[in-house]
Amino acid sequence: MYLQVPLYKHIADLSGRGNHVLPVPAFTLINGGKHAGNNLALRDIIVLPIGAKRFEEAMQMGSETYHHLKAVITEKFGAQGCNVGEDGGFAPNISRHTSINIV
Fold first, then answer.
1. Residue range(s) defining the domain that contains residue 64
2. How far is the C-alpha of 98 from the C-alpha of 81, rounded, in Å?
3. Residue 7 lies in a domain
4. What is the pLDDT of residues 79-97, one digit of tens each?
């Protein structure tokens, strides 16, 4: 009979680590460069919700940040600013770093 073990625990066991640490999801918020169809000098802006106590909380934090950023970009750049790049982040038509306050 096989025991079902979550992948992160199996990898931790294989590496010899005694403590099991859940993975932290990464959220691509803004894509830049040629693959995003804009002239932004950065490739990607990614956030990691490292303060979350549970994986579900981390997913919620990332999702809420993504959707709030969409509202801010729509207000600042219009609906076309919410184009999505190859990696799932927004690809607004900007060519330089600009201040986008999402707080």
1. 22-95
2. 13
3. no
4. 877 888 777 888 777 765 5
